[in-house]
Amino acid sequence: MIRLARLLLCLLAAVCAAQAARAQAPADFYRGKTVSLFVGYPPGGGYDVYARAIARHMGAFIPGKPGMVVRNQPGAASLTFANELYNTHPRDGTVFGTFARSVPMDRLLGRPATHFDPVQFNWIGSANAEVSICTVWHGLGIASVEDFMSRPIVFGANAPGSESDVYPTILNNLLGAKFRVVTGYPGTNDLMMAMERGETQGRCGMTWSAFKSTMPEWVRDRKVYVALQFAIEKHPELPDVPMVTELARNAKEKHALELILAGQAMGRPFVAPPRTPPDRVEALRRAFDATFRDPAFLAEAERLGLEIHAVSGERLQTIVEAMFNQPREVIEAARDAIESPRGR
Predict the structure, then answer these.
(1) Alpha-carbon distance values, 260 to 245, 318, 319 (Å)
(2) Are residues 165 and 288 in the same domain?
(3) Is residue 249 part of a domain?
(4) pLDDT digit string (tens) for 54-95?
(5) pTM score, whole prediction
(6) Which residues contact 159 (CB under 8 A, 6 or more apart)?
(7) What is the rounded distance in angstroms from the CA atom of residue 237 to the CA atom of residue 219?
(8) In 3-state terms, what secondary structure has residue 327?
């Protein structure tokens, strides 16, 4: 009798466990909830525009069809959000977000205030693989990369360590330019207004796709000269603009630049916190992929001028892991290019 009672209790426990597992299936979990999509920048910039377009469509592809809301959490060129996503935001699948594609490199190169391990993040996907550009205001009269590299141009930037700060710094430290970088501009719009007002003369680190979509009149009216591409491959719309790797004078410089540029394949990354339940990570990844096949989303992206070339979460995870497996001498050369004070 006692043995029978124990067997019944075991069976009951198994049934309860199975019911609990079913209750936590992604569709059951997400039904009636709201998923927060955070942006590590102020409203209006490229990361924000992509996130809002995605949020308007992605909820329909998440099991249970939750609502989605975009929340901006700017600070330190998105580093504030990256830290909080890793350390304090909920890990239950109701939060994910986007930060600068340079964030993994910040950690790899030992930059201060990087309180996260990029490999432990759950990478959901990227809207595209990006080509970043360096631009200067048309009034400077620069018409070649040789002119560009020889002039003491003043560049505006977000926080120290942001791409707008790092890219002109690399040109100084690794390739001998003599640029001055002024940090402290909160967002993309602030940087563009500073150029227009004459406070600064150039800006590096903005992607070509974001530049086209947010400043189409500047493209049309040739308000800036596009001097360089920071990319592994040239953008097809910029065939005559040299890549920064073409300026490398030796193999060491070239390998350091290639490591720094690895993040360009991450374009507009979307990331969930570490230790998010695997089935919910899977649900978010597949919903992200489905969004980028959705005709309604693609039509909206075209209207907004957003460049779309989705990269899967699994691919991003592989890229990040490969970055952290580079030889020490390559990492040190990249760190010297970014961190050395020479030319600042």
Answers:
(1) 11, 16, 12
(2) no
(3) yes
(4) 999 999 999 999 999 999 999 988 999 999 999 999 999 999
(5) 0.72
(6) 75, 76, 77, 79, 165, 183, 184
(7) 12
(8) coil
